[in-house]
Fold Phosphate transport system substrate-binding protein.
Amino acid sequence: MKNSILVVFAFFFLISCNKSKTEALDTPNQGTITLEADESFKSVTEALTERYMALNPSTKINVVYTKEDIGLLDLLDRKTRVIVMSRNLTKSEKDAYDKKINLPWQPAKFAADALVFVVSKENSTIKELSVDEIKKRISSDEKSLIFDGANSSNINFIAQQFNVKASALKYSIIKGNENIVKELEKYPNKIGVISLNTISRPYGDEAIMLRDKINVLPIVDKGKSYTPTVDNLQDMQYPFTRVLYFLTNEAYYGLGNGFIRFACTQLGQIVVEKEGLQPYNLYRREVQMR
C-alpha cells in the first residue's frame, strides 16, 4: 500500500512538472523574449516590435543591438530567440545552424534595405560613385570610405558583394550609422557608408535631421545611374540592395514565431512601408467603387 501511494504521488508530481513546463512556454500573445539586431536596422526593428507589443500587451520583446556576427553566435548558443540578418550565411554557418538548432532552414524575409553612400552637404566635389570606384576605394590605403565598424552588417555585406574577406577591406571607422552622418562634415574628403534605414523614415524627426546633413550619392553600374528609391529596391536594380530576414531557434509556435509571422504578413508589411523601406511581401490593394 505504501509503495502504491508513492507511485501515485510520483505520477502526479510528474504531471505537475510537465504542466508547469508547458505553462512556462511563451505564446504569440504572452511572454518575454530577446531579439538581436544590428544597429543599422534599429528603426525598422523598433517600429515592428513596438507595434507588435501594442497589439499584444502581455508580450515583451527585449531588443538588443549588437554586431550581426555576434547576433548569429548568440542565436546558435540560444542566448537570443530571434535575430535580424542581411547577408547570406556561409556554408559553415548553415551547417552550424543545422547542427545546433536542428530546425528547417527558413529565413523569414520581410524588407529590402540598402547600403547607401553619403557625403556632407558641404561636399560639392563628389556627385556620384561607380561600383568599380567603390571597389577601388575599399582596397585603398587612403581609407576614404567610413563604416560603422568591423563585423557590422554594412561591412559584411559589401565584402560579400565583392566576394572578398571583410578582414581584407580598408576603411575608416566612426561607430554608429547616425554618428557617421553627424560627424561627416569634419571629413570633407571621405564618404560615409550607412544603412538606408538610418535615414529612410519619411516623417521621423531624427531621420529628417540626418537627411538634412547629407547628400545621397547615385551609384553607377554598367553605365546606368541608380538611387536607393523604393522602386529600385523592389526591382533590386540599385546595386547595393539587401534583403532583411529573421532567423529563430524557436521550435514551437511561441512569441518568436508569432512576431515573425506578424512582421511578414500585411500589418507588419505596412509598418515596413511606413519606415520608407520596400516590403518584401507585396499585397494587392483593392478599391471598390460604388
Notes: The chain has eleven helices and 13 strands.
